[in-house]
Design brief:
By secondary structure, this protein is mainly α. The protein has one domain. The longest helix is centred in the middle third of the chain and has 34 residues.
């Protein structure tokens, strides 16, 4: 399990880096759209719609970042990798795909 934990820790650290970079990009995309910006009415509506979508993606990325930090803090705990609902081991494949998940695929979060 020690080798698995090292592999998981490495995966979480890479996900942290990627997610933080994604958040920075999304923060740029969610800046307010100036009303005097001469992009045309339809284009402005598209920009506002895209901004709303990016805001939702930003919120999801921030939640993921929080979950990754929580997982990294808990990686040394004896109950790391145990489903918070059914208390069964979470398969390594699931942890590698969704390292911030506290639940097995059956109990999905």
């Amino acid at each position: 399990m020690t080798h698995d934990r090292k592999q998981i820790e490495k995966k979480i650290q890479q996900e942290l880096i990627d997610t933080e970079a994604q958040i920075l990009d999304l923060k740029e995309l969610t800046k307010p759209i100036a009303p005097d910006c001469a992009i045309g009415r339809v284009s402005r509506m598209d920009a506002i719609n895209n901004k709303s979508i990016n805001e939702a993606v930003l919120r999801k990325a921030e939640l993921k970042l929080s979950g990754l930090k929580f997982a990294l803090d808990r990686i040394s705990d004896t109950d790391f990798g145990i489903c918070a609902k059914c208390e069964q081991p979470i398969p390594l494949g699931r942890i590698m795909l969704v390292p911030h998940s506290r639940f097995c695929a059956r109990c999905t979060d």
